[in-house]
Amino acid sequence: MAENDNRTPAADNDHMTATQKKKPRFAKARAWWNEAWDKDGALHEMWEDVRRAPDAGWHGMANWIKAAAGIAVFSFVVLLLNGAVDVLLGAAHRILTAVPNVQIGDSTSTGVWAAIDNPVRSYIAAHSAGLPISASTVYTLWQVTGLFSLIGGFITRSNGIRLTWSCWGFAGIAMVWTTTPDTSRTVATAIAALAWTIASALALRGLNLRPRVFSTVHTGAPQITIQPQIHIPAQPDGPAPDNVRQLGR
């Protein structure tokens, strides 16, 4: 007895059509893969570039390898900086918030320095009420800026750092003048200006405001150029002499 076949001819035709569609697709992919790894193929050339890179060095390796290496290094540096910035900002925040609070009229300094430091403290405390940071943080930044510009100007002789030092000194003298009472304002401002001038001998080391004049002095014997020339005097007009004979005749 013949077995019953539930499959219809239409279903068999659909299955055969799907199988025929898959075969050409995989065949094309396999052909492209083989062609790419053949000699002068794209993948073969890239592998050869990678293999020759250690011996060729940075200047001799392929440009696409340089670009890939540059992108990888740049991404790694960005990741490191992202983590380092968070750490540095957290450390700076802890350092700045750990300083004592600055109040108006604090007399924490003594001696000659008190005539300069106490007016600066009072000025910063009186004019930092609306800022998102505390007056103590502003005062710490003020001190760090002055110390950095003093040391940086002495070591590097940079014009930008020296300009920062000059602005810092002028602002400090203006704070002393504004905050000190009228009875002692002149003396306190003079002390602040004198202290800043003495410190400027270090911060502005080597600064010369005179214009530079470059002069060139030539020494030695003068240069004489000799050009030999032959001058033929003009012949007088008239008949040619009969005793002149041409050579070779």
Briefly, what is this?
The chain has 7 helices and no strands.
How would you characterize this protein structure?
With 249 residues, this protein is mostly helical. Among the domains are: 38-98; 104-203, no CATH class. 63% of the residues lie in helices and 0% in strands. It has seven helices and no strands. The chain has helices at 9-37, 42-60, 63-97, 114-126, 135-156, 159-179, 185-203. The radius of gyration is 45 Å and the shape is flat. It starts with 8 loop residues before the first helix and ends in a 46-residue tail after the last helix.
What is the 3D shape?
Answer: flat
- Integer average pLDDT: 75
Kindly state the number of beta strands.
0
| Structural class assignment | mainly alpha
Percentage beta strand: under 5%
Task: Please mark out the parts with pLDDT under 50 across 5 or more consecutive residues, or reply none.
Answer: none
Percent in helix: 55-70%
Order of helices and strands: HHHHHHH
Termini separation comes to 136 Å
Over the alpha carbons, how many angstroms does the gyration radius reach? Answer: 45 Å
**Sheet with most strands:** none
Tally the helices: 7
List the SSEs and their pairings.
Blueprint: H1 9-37, H2 42-60, H3 63-97, H4 114-126, H5 135-156, H6 159-179, H7 185-203
Which labels suit this protein?
0% strand
